[in-house]
Amino acid sequence: MEAVHKGKYGTYARGRSLVMRILRQGFFWPNIHKDAQVFVEKGSQCQYYADMHRQPVGYLKPINSSWPFAIWGLDFLGSMPTPMRNYKWILVAIDYFTKWIEAKPLTQPTAQNVENFLWANIVCRYGIPMMIITNNGTLFANQQVHDFCGKHQINLKYASVWHSHTNGQAEAANKRNVLTAPKPAG
């Protein structure tokens, strides 16, 4: 099972797809479906990179944007395990209307870097947004970023600590970035 899953041409298939690949190789045993599911769930890389939904279904309350570049979601992606040129972090912003992504690699995640990013990559390119949604991290929930948003009359909203999916647009952008990034060998 491991050879088919991770082998030379392994695609890290999971569940039913893994079973079909094993069957094509000419192998079968009575509990093949259950064994494949357990095997995939135990793999740490599979757990990290898999596109599995674990959150229970709830009522959808979308955050709608009336026009392009009015509402942005911000989030940090990192710390990267193998940084290029010491860039261990990526600051990601996504527009809620167009789904346009702005990203900047950073060596250190600081409030000053957040402010510089907002000015150079958001305000100077697309104008002053109506709202910015971030998580409650200290890099976003600090006086410097709060003052910057206040000075430019930007409504700064924080996602709930218990429900980070409030900033789902930025989380989804980060997920796409992680899934398309090269995976470590192993």
Low-pLDDT parts are 178-186
Helix and strand run: HHHHEEEHEHEH
CATH topology of the largest domain: Nucleotidyltransferase, domain 5
Fraction of helical residues = 25-40%
GO molecular function, one term: nucleic acid binding
Protein name: Integrase catalytic domain-containing protein
Task: Annotate the secondary structure layout.
Blueprint: H1 2-6, H2 15-24, H3 32-42, H4 44-49, E1 71-78, E2 89-95, E3 101-106, H5 111-126, E4 131-134, H6 143-151, E5 155-158, H7 168-180
Parallel strand pairs: 1-4, 4-5
Antiparallel strand pairs: 1-2, 2-3
Helix pairs in contact: 2-3
Describe this structure as you would to a colleague.
The chain has helices spanning 2-6, 15-24, 32-42, 44-49, 111-126, 143-151, 168-180, and strands at 71-78, 89-95, 101-106, 131-134, 155-158. Strands 3-2-1-4-5 form a five-stranded mixed beta sheet. The model is unreliable at 178-186 (pLDDT under 50). Helix 2 (15-24) crosses helix 3 (32-42). The longest helix is centred in the middle third of the chain and has 16 residues, at 111-126. With 186 residues, the protein is of the alpha/beta class. This is Integrase catalytic domain-containing protein. It comes from Apostasia shenzhenica.
Would you kindly provide a brief summary of this structure?
Helix content is 38%, strand content 16%. By secondary structure, it is an alpha/beta fold. The longest helix is centred in the middle third of the chain and has 16 residues, at 111-126.
